[in-house]
RNA sequence: GAGGUUGUAGCUCAGUUGGUUAGAGCGUCGGAUUGUGGUUCCGAAGGUCGCGGGUUCGAGACCCGUCUUCCUCCCCA
């Protein structure tokens, strides 16, 4: 009885070449994280439900994968809640663990739990998969990797500065030709709500403004009206819709707009520090843009908000991040400011694939394959393989004395760099025919000089 | 969670108003070719037409359900 092979929606298998390319992305990110002084930690793939639930806004809980209780624990099912159609309570009685939804909330839990074992400001990076019960779409998976770097325990703005450079460094290293780091500040958004006389509608206003480039001015106004924002407040917000110019111009305009809001001005000051200092230090390839419409749904950001978009491709944001002043407060540790960013490795992979930006090396596996001509020849090949492996050259012998054509085809399919041929003649003369599989060139190399061949050129 | 869309060979897809034994290209395997892969030629294998039910003398095609694909919304990496 055979079963049709399939994997759950929103998940993927990875072929060797795909793993090689993903590793290239992870290695590039990891290297930069280390250079910037972050140290790796890991947390479990699943947490207690209570750690995650209620941390991602009203809609968030819906997207968290729950792990069903097993064995005797099944009996804890709250049938009364089911009868009353209280589905959330019923779900909670069925499940006490859940797959992590992101790396930030587990990190906050980690910091509080291990506060006596770590030094503040604590800088950590973490590269692990996360899971979301989202509907899969282009660039949207149910299992994907996040590559996070966060600092907790300092409200210094030099970390915001570091993160802007980190985005720039990693994406430049990955040869991404054009990308924009968008930056905003939650305090500026608060200021807007305050100045408009609708401070209580902060979230609705930011969510609506965030959609400006998608649904246009009319759409935003409509959404604000639907959310119960007053007409006078909307009139005050309207000037922001036509907000253009250089970062310096925008800052000036906002400084005027927010003049009466203390928190708004604080946001302007924070943002201008980051923009000015970044201009001072310079960026390799990134554009840094103050984007007033950048809000992001996560309700725990309190200061800087980041988002990175690759230009010229149809793909949502490839990186995100921001400052959260009291994330650890949820776990009972007050007054710990944190700021962090996340690289969406899977989306970066899709962008690099679309733009054909992966280096050629990532498609090479084996460096050298020895063709098998028979027992005597094989014996010599095995000795040579041993020597080459000691010299870190990846190589192997074809397992049987098959037709040469078949062995060559195998080498071709494996995308090996070189094929070594040692037949009767070569055995007698102590040489190897070395064939470069991409150029087709073939040269004769003495057996005792094989280890010194420049394999990686 | 809401709306739309898709599903036929390993992959990409044909398949007429419902009518005999469901096709092609690519890929795979074998051969032409017993020391040379990517090109060429010949041959072969490979399908419960997503799954379940219904209509019909007859369903790959029509209807219902379900799962899946891709897209829009919500939200996000």
Description:
The chain is α+β, with helices and mostly antiparallel strands and 457 residues long. The strands form three sheets. An eight-stranded mixed β-sheet has the order 1-5-6-11-10-9-7-8. A five-stranded mixed β-sheet has the order 13-12-14-15-16. Helix 1 runs antiparallel to helix 7 and helix 1 crosses helix 14. The radius of gyration is 28 Å and the shape is elongated. The chain binds one RNA strand of 77 nucleotides through helix 3, strand 6, strand 11, helix 14 and helix 16.
Q: Give, in spatial order, the strands making up the sheet with the most strands.
A: 1-5-6-11-10-9-7-8
Query: What's the tally of helices?
Result: 17
Q: How many extended strands? A: 16
Rg over alpha carbons: 28 Å
Span between termini: 50 Å
Secondary structure elements and pairings:
Elements: H1 16-35, E1 39-40, E2 46-48, H2 49-52, H3 57-60, E3 66-68, H4 79-83, H5 87-94, E4 95-99, H6 104-113, E5 122-131, E6 143-152, H7 158-173, E7 179-185, H8 186-195, H9 202-210, H10 212-226, H11 231-237, H12 247-257, H13 262-281, E8 287-290, E9 304-310, E10 319-324, E11 338-344, H14 345-354, E12 368-370, H15 375-390, E13 395-397, H16 404-414, E14 418-421, H17 424-429, E15 431-436, E16 442-446
Parallel strand pairs: 1-5, 7-8, 12-13, 12-14
Antiparallel strand pairs: 2-4, 3-4, 5-6, 6-11, 7-9, 9-10, 10-11, 14-15, 15-16
The structure holds one RNA strand of 77 nucleotides.
């Amino acid at each position: 009885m055979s079963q049709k092979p399939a994997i759950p929606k929103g998940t993927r298998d990875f072929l060797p070449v795909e793993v090689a390319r993903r590793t290239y992305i992870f290695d590039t990110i990891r290297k930069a994280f280390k250079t910037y002084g972050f140290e790796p930690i890991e947390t479990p793939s699943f947490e207690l439900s209570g750690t995650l639930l209620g941390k991602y806004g009203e809609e968030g809980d819906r997207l968290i994968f729950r792990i069903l209780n097993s064995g005797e624990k099944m009996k804890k099912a709250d049938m009364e809640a089911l009868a009353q159609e209280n589905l959330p309570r019923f779900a909670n009685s069925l499940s006490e663990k859940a797959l992590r939804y992101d790396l930030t909330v587990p990190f906050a839990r980690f910091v509080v739990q291990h506060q006596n074992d770590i030094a503040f400001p604590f800088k950590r990076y973490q590269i692990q998969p996360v899971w979301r019960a989202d509907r899969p779409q282009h660039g949207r998976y149910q299992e994907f990797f996040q590559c996070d770097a966060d600092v907790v325990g300092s409200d210094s703005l030099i970390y915001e500065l570091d993160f802007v450079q980190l985005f720039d460094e990693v994406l430049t290293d990955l040869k991404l030709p054009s990308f924009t780091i968008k930056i905003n500040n939650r305090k500026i958004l608060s200021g807007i709500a305050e100045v408009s006389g609708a401070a209580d509608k902060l979230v609705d206003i930011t969510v609506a403004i965030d959609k400006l480039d998608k649904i246009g001015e009319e759409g935003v106004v409509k959404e604000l009206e639907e959310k119960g924002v007053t007409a006078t407040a909307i009139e005050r917000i309207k000037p922001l819709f036509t907000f253009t110019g250089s970062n310096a111009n925008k800052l000036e305009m906002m400084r005027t707009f927010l003049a009466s809001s203390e928190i708004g001005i604080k946001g302007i000051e924070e943002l201008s520090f980051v923009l000015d200092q970044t201009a001072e230090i310079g960026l390799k390839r990134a554009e840094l843009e103050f984007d007033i419409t950048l809000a992001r749904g996560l309700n725990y950001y309190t200061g800087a908000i980041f988002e990175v978009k690759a230009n010229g491709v149809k793909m949502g944001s490839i990186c995100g991040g921001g400052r959260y002043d009291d994330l650890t407060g949820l776990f009972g540790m007050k007054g710990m400011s944190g700021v962090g960013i996340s690289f969406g490795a899977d989306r970066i992979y899709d962008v690099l694939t679309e733009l054909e930006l992966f280096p050629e090396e990532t498609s090479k596996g084996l460096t050298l394959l020895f063709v098998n001509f028979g027992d005597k020849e094989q014996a010599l090949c095995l000795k040579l393989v041993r020597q080459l492996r000691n010299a870190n050259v990846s190589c192997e012998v074809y397992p049987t004395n098959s037709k040469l054509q078949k062995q060559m085809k195998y080498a071709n399919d494996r995308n090996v760099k070189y094929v070594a041929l040692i037949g009767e003649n070569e055995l007698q003369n102590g040489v190897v025919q070395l064939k470069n599989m991409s150029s087709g060139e073939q040269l004769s190399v003495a057996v005792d000089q094989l280890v010194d061949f420049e394999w990686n050129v």
